[in-house]
């Protein structure tokens, strides 16, 4: 069996930065060539970033992507990398009959291309378009109907034989029945490579590996899945690239939340010699017909040879297998990645946040310090007459543990100045305090250029237990999709992780242990207003993430009165969520693109218990 | 030719209020019966409101809609209205093979039903699903593939003859080639009724009438288009229902932005006697096959007879033709409707806004007073050391002209209290003033229960010439989609309209005439930061609404340096827009569901001039 050395480049891409993304393709192709790879695969839409949202409707952007693709192919050859076969995602355009009414008029494609010898040898496009959850791909893309299969020499440099046949699909094409996977089997390809931009979600099972195994068996081919890495607004891509053989055996696996080159030696069936058949139509078993389009990759006299074993990284077998993170480490890494990339890609140099002594702001500060280092993390202590002594002490303790920049700005003078005129009480007076804090943070942000981090958790945002323009003020909300009970779990995990590494725990134990309070009124506790968080989060999980109706919630065992109360709180808070800053999605349904409800909405779930 | 009296009920619906919407169907069916109508047609998704967004993914809500439909049919019969044929939109569920992967699992349908004699006689669903602009219908709905044709007796009560054949399509089915319109001709129906929820957009031409005329000719049938009326979050439905005959002649037309019953007598071809054919498959000429499904409406012994001529309303011909509003009146009515319905449907009793003496807040206050009356409109004058004398005078003048509730809260004490600690200058100090105003409005809102109206216009929002949590604070933004030049046009129009009605102009002339200023720094003018608004708005129209790239903008005649500057401002302000409150859409592309761009976005349009 011919042996092919493949490299999966699970790297970052920045939306709109065609120049930078192109440079990354060249840089990582060089690394792959240095490792002796004959084929390098980059993620979905690598050249443009993903998701580009309505940029996919703008002709100038599509044009620029297509030009950047050709320029990248040429630059690779100029730099002596033309002999490496490079598969990369980009934003393409449909050629052929015009889109039908209702299809996107610009005819954009979520495309993949094979670059070799300075040329774009063949292109294709995602066949199955996801249009649920955070995805709106029917808004942007036409479906592809071509399976490209390229015949790649993988013997000695300059030798035409042996060759292997490699097919390409894109992301969602793996998740749906029929289509490119089915047609890969029909085409007899030995390897199916799949660029992905598949966002992280907290998962109990290893869904992705199981999917790759199933599809490899269906395709009758080795399957190489390469996923993007890094944060883009509310999405985080986690890498975790996978290679399995045609029997479903795991051959290599990349790290989570790290850029990496996953290099593996694949033993693949030899492709036949001689001329290629012309384009062949094939039933895709999904109600459509696809065309198998074959091309030959020219023999290159200086194709790279093997330089070192592919398995010099951790793991064993054809390639390295990085260990999987445990469930809390995984979530924590997602949050750190989301913050780091939002800061970096939006060219902020520092962040600022309010530190209350409570667990939410403590965890947020810790994530920020882990993301960009402690030095650019500025915190503001903003005590009021209702702040307890431990609040300030716990906040100061955290500052000292982590070496953050801290200052104290008491809110009383500004609150009093407002109250002299407004003289409000109750919730209005509580919100006023929170808004004065919001103004202080935004003012320091404007004056000093910091990104304001918002410290609210998912349980608060769900129930509306937050003040619009107060604690909800900011540009990015790191724990927005983290329920309160998971906030505690993550804080404990982070401290334990420090202990495992022989470091001091970064989060004061008291911030983890004390009962949560907004401290906006004397002796106030969250439980004055909200149910116990363990009980609340269980209902929220079923209502928000699982989208159960009231009757289902009661049938699932939740207290009927509590169900009514929680549903009313969640539904009423929709207007606040619309104005909340973005934050990294870690659950199957976040507040953002994933859950779209009307503000004006009189639907009250019937309980029928 | 048989004559059928039809009534189009272009009425309001509230999202989620199944009980209230059902009651409206019964109430307006009674009015139609009183006018002698044999057939009443309600808007798309009348029973649930539109758009219901992710409520269409919730099984409990679909179940409730289907139950409410049956209950409505039964109640109509109970109240002696069973003899009227009622066509109404509702949220249905697909019956048949399960949805494919990628289709919405709950299988919701944007459905229409015929109610008669206490029964749901036949149902169908929208065949063409819009998935562009503000619409995401592939996310929610499965496409319908059935054209219902019902044979309706329209002679004397109790007589089986004559009858007419009536087909039903839904909204987008009119906008796309092929599908229900084509199949209506094949079925030989004499009348095609079309429930719609078609949002208002400022249009130069009378697109809708032309479309109805074209489709009536294609269907070879009289066409009755009934559109929803009223506001729902960022959308406003404008009514403007239309009936044209098979030759395209206008027979009746409803008012814009008013609930109304459009009653008309239609001369229609008689349907044949005898048994109906079974279901027939028909090529829909859009790549699909539809089924023509025929049902007979039973003869009702007490069907209503004609009670008065159908044309007692303005206009002439088979039914009334309300006059069309002129272009500015139309926009103004859309804004008033949007505000009124957001307030009412969200159960607010009053609004509050800051009044600066400038044109934006003056127009917003005037719209609010026109929407809900002057008494529930509370304004706050919040002068600073930079406020000019005319600012306060102009604001007070407007208050007096309109009889609003006004109070004055100077911002200096709070600003000074913040500055004592923060000591910021420049933009940070300007934003601080705006944010103190935001806090004052939100505090009064919390204390007194008013909805805060945001006064920013589209030009400001586009360029980011606004302060996050300052002038952008609020729950609803009436002129969010109104470019500054149109703000002035609307203000002038409103004053002229008052003059035409013999009333005093509500807006002080000085607010219209003076050069715009944020008054956050000494002698500040908008033109210190922004181009002249006439020039700016022209670029924004082409960049934001037309989605031109930089090269196209330059080719369209805009100054190249200005193009670069405006694009940079617009792109950079995306993060602010994400946190802006909703406001009524009046242009073909608003900031909201209509334009979805990443915040993290390094794409810089190449000018190439």
Describe the structure.
Two copies of one chain form a homodimer. Chain A is α/β, with parallel strands linked by helices. Helices cover 35% and strands 18% of the residues of chain A. The first copy, chain A, has 19 helices and 20 strands. Chain A has helices at 18-34, 59-78, 137-140, 172-175, 180-187, 207-219, 327-345, 359-372, 389-402, 412-422, 426-448, 458-463, 484-500, 509-513, 526-529, 533-545, 550-555, 560-572, 574-578, and strands spanning 3-10, 39-41, 85-93, 108-116, 119-125, 146-153, 163-168, 191-196, 222-227, 229-232, 235-238, 242-244, 250-253, 260-267, 280-283, 289-296, 351-354, 377-381, 405-408, 451-452. Chain A has an eight-stranded mixed beta sheet, covered by helices on one side. In chain A, helix 9 (389-402) links the parallel strand 18 (377-381) and strand 19 (405-408). In chain A, helix 7 (327-345) crosses helix 13, helix 10 (412-422) packs across helix 11 and helix 16 (533-545) packs across helix 18 (560-572). The longest helix of chain A is centred in the last third of the chain and has 23 residues, at 426-448. Chain A is elongated and about 90 Å long. The termini of chain A are far apart.
């Amino acid at each position: 069996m011919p042996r092919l050395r493949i490299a999966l480049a699970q790297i970052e891409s920045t939306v709109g930065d065609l120049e930078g993304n192109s440079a990354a393709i060249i840089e990582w192709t060089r690394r792959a060539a240095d490792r002796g790879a004959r084929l390098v695969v980059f993620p979905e839409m690598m050249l443009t970033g993903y998701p580009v949202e309505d940029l996919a409707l703008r002709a100038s952007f599509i044009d620029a992507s297509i030009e950047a693709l050709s320029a990248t192919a040429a630059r690779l050859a100029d730099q002596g990398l033309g002999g490496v076969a490079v598969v990369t995602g980009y934003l393409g355009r449909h050629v052929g009959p015009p889109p039908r009414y209702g299809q996107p008029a610009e005819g954009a494609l979520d495309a993949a291309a094979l670059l070799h010898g300075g040329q774009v040898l063949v292109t294709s496009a995602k066949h199955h378009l996801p249009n649920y959850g955070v995805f709106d791909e029917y808004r942007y893309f036409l479906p592809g109907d071509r399976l490209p299969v390229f015949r790649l020499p993988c013997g000695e440099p300059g030798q035409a034989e042996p060759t292997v046949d490699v097919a390409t699909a894109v992301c969602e094409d793996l998740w749906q029945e029929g289509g490119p996977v089915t047609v890969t089997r029909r085409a007899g390809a030995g390897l199916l490579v799949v660029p992905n931009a598949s966002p992280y979600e907290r998962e109990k099972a290893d869904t992705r590996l199981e999917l790759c195994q199933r599809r490899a068996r269906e395709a009758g081919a080795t399957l190489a899945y390469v996923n993007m890495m890094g944060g883009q607004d509310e999405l985080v891509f986690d890498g975790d690239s996978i290679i399995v053989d045609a029997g479903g055996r795991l051959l290599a696996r990349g790290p989570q939340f790290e850029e990496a080159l996953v290099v593996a030696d694949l033993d693949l069936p030899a492709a036949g010699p001689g001329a290629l058949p012309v384009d062949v139509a094939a039933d895709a078993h999904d109600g459509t017909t696809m065309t198998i389009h074959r091309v030959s990759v020219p023999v290159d006299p200086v194709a790279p040879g093997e330089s070192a074993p592919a398995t010099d990284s951790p793991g064993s077998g054809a390639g390295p297998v990085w260990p999987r993170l445990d469930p809390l480490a995984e979530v924590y890494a997602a949050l750190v990645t989301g913050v780091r990339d939002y800061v970096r890609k939006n060219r902020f140099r520092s962040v600022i946040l309010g530190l209350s002594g409570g667990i939410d702001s403590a965890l947020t500060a810790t994530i920020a310090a882990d993301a960009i280092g402690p030095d650019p993390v500025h915190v503001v202590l903003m005590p009021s007459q209702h702040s307890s002594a431990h609040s300030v002490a716990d906040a100061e303790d955290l500052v000292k543990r982590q070496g953050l920049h801290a200052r104290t700005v008491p809110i009383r003078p500004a609150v009093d100045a407002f109250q002299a005129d407004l003289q409000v009480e109750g919730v209005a007076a509580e919100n006023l305090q929170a808004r004065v804090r919001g103004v202080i943070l935004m003012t320091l942000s404007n004056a000093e250029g910091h990104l304001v981090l918002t410290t609210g958790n998912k349980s608060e945002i769900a129930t509306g237990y937050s003040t619009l323009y107060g604690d909800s003020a900011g540009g990015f909300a790191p724990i927005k999709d983290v329920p309160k009970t998971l906030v505690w779990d993550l804080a404990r995990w982070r401290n334990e992780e420090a202990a495992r590494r022989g470091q001091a725990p970064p989060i004061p134990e008291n911030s983890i242990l004390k009962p949560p309070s907004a401290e906006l009124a004397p002796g106030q506790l969250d439980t004055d207003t909200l149910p116990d968080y363990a009980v609340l989060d269980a209902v929220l999980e079923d209502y928000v993430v699982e989208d159960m109706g009231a009757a289902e919630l009661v049938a699932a065992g939740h207290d009927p009165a509590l169900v009514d109360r929680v549903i009313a709180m969640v539904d009423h808070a929709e207007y606040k969520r619309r104005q909340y800053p973005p934050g990294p999605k870690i659950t199957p349904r976040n507040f953002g693109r994933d859950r779209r409800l009307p503000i004006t909405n009189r639907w009250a779930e019937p309980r029928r218990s």
